[in-house]
Structure formats: C-alpha cells, structure tokens
Amino acid sequence: MHTRELTALVAELRQEFQVSIKLVLKVVKIPRSTYYYAQTHSGRVFDDDQLIQAIDEIRQQDPKYTKKYGYRRLTNALGELGFKVNHKRVLRIMHDHDWLCQAFNRQKRKYNSYQGTVGKISPNRLNRRFMTDRPYQKLVADVSEFRYGSMSQSERVYLEPILDLFSGEVLAFNISNHPTVEFAVKPLKEALDRLPKLKYRTTVHTDQGFQYQHYNWQQTLKNHRVFQSMSRKATCLDNAVVESFFHIMKAEVMDEHFEDQASLVQAMTNWIDFYNQRRIKIKLNGKSPVQYRKLAVQKAA
C-alpha cells in the first residue's frame, strides 16, 4: 500500500467510527511506526527520471562492459556523480528496466596446469592474507584458457596476468597458443622490471603449476630478490583473487562467440585495459585499479 493510500485509509476510518488512531491501527493490523513514517513522507514524490538517465549514461560509457555493472557498482558510480541514493532504489530501477546482468550465473571452464611435482615446491607465504596497504608488496599469477572457433573444433589461447593485490591492477600479461614456461616467465619479467624501488620485498604467489615449479621462473624471482609463494595442492582458495579475476573477465568477455583468434585476443586485450583504467571497484571506493594506485602514491608522497 502506498503512503497516501495508507494515511487516507486511517483518516477515513477515524472519521467514520470516531475512534482513536491506536484502535484503527490495531484493527487494520498496521504497526504505528509504519503509519507515522507514511504520514511523514506522504507528500514525498519519488522522481526517478534523472536517476534513470544517469544510470543509462553510466551503462553507455563502455557499453560492452558497463552494461554488466551490478546495482552495487552502479550505486557507487552514481555517488561519484553526486547522487545520494540507496542501493535498493537502484536495484528496483534496474529490475524495472530489465538491466540486471545474468552473465555471472554461467559456469566457466577452468584450466589446470598442475602436472605433479616436476620441480621445487615453495611454501605458502601468503597463506590467504590477500589484503595489503601498499602497492607491489603482494603479486599473484595464474594461467587460464579462452576458447574460440566452432563447437565441434574449438581452439584455445592461454592468458597469464600478474595482479597486484593492493588494487587488483594487471601489471603485465601474456596471451599465447601454448602455456609454456617461457610464456609464463615473460609477463613476470615485465612486471618485476617495472617495479619502483621499494622499502620492502615483494612476494609473488601462484598455484603449483609446472611453469611455477620450473627453474626459469624461480631464478627470475631470485634475480629480482622476490619471495616465492605457492598454494597448497588442489586448494584453489589459496589463490582466490586471481580465480575471481578470471571469473569476472570470462563473464564480461566470453558472453559472445569468437570465430577466430585475432578477434578473441583483441577483445581480451581491450577488456584488460578497461579493467585497469576504467572499471570501478566497490572495495576501491569507486575507483579503478590504476586510479586507486595513483591516489595512494600521491598521498604517500
């Protein structure tokens, strides 16, 4: 029942039967708090037009990706534009306009690079402590596959990103037809070579994939005086952040079919640039990973 209907009903019953508000509310089984709230807000008009327009503009910024924003992220984006709005109101509007994204409900295929103990297994230094208050202190990496071509004869490419747990920023990445050791080491070297001088040592965490047990990977870490950390066997939660990254990326990129490798690789590259530069994150106070890192560096300077 709307606020005006509620207050009108109580007033009509009081006038007809000449009884107190307390008795009327008891008969119609309406809590006193509900009635007084309705009376206070009886003249309030909820005009959603400006809000709908703002939400639509946000969704059109990067249409392929921002149309997949959920109501929490949209609420945050609206706050950056000066709107003071409750997330429930945003959810209602999105539901009314059929703007709710279903891409994240689909299960995605997972790539497993574990081939047994083929090299040295490092201790789990990270131990699921994913939070850090400084950039470049904790980095994570993993490999996942992306498919293209026909259903009967699908091909695949492999992606390895190096993520900074401070902001989730992709510091470097590589895409290749084969998940070789050289493929994995290339973005690691790029990321470590770009690190500024730090007062603390960096830790790079991975699973126990054969690439990460290899001498070349481990020697690259030693050359940069970086600690190595590994998940325990068959424990994907030990590297949950990068697993979550792959889930988000596949939901937002693989919602369409790619016939050839070039178009898939281009879509993957474009999305990573969007993710770093423009995709806002709630836990980063509505900032993208790069924006958040730059603000942190400015404050520390």
Description:
- With 301 residues, the chain is α/β, with parallel strands linked by helices.
- Strands 1, 2, 3, 4, 5 and 6 form a six-stranded mixed β-sheet that branches.
Distance between the termini: 56 Å
Shape: elongated
Largest sheet: 6 strands, mixed
Q: Return the string of H and E elements.
A: HHHHHHHEEEEHEHHEHHH
Structural class of the helix and strand makeup?
alpha/beta
Question: How many helical stretches?
Answer: 13
- Return Rg in Å: 26 Å
How many beta strands in the DSSP annotation?
A: 6
* Low-confidence runs of at least 5 consecutive residues: none
Concise structural overview:
The protein has helices spanning 3-17, 21-28, 32-40, 49-59, 63-66, 71-80, 87-96, 181-193, 210-213, 215-223, 240-253, 261-277, 289-300; strands at 138-141, 144-149, 154-164, 170-176, 203-206, 227-230. The protein is an alpha/beta fold.
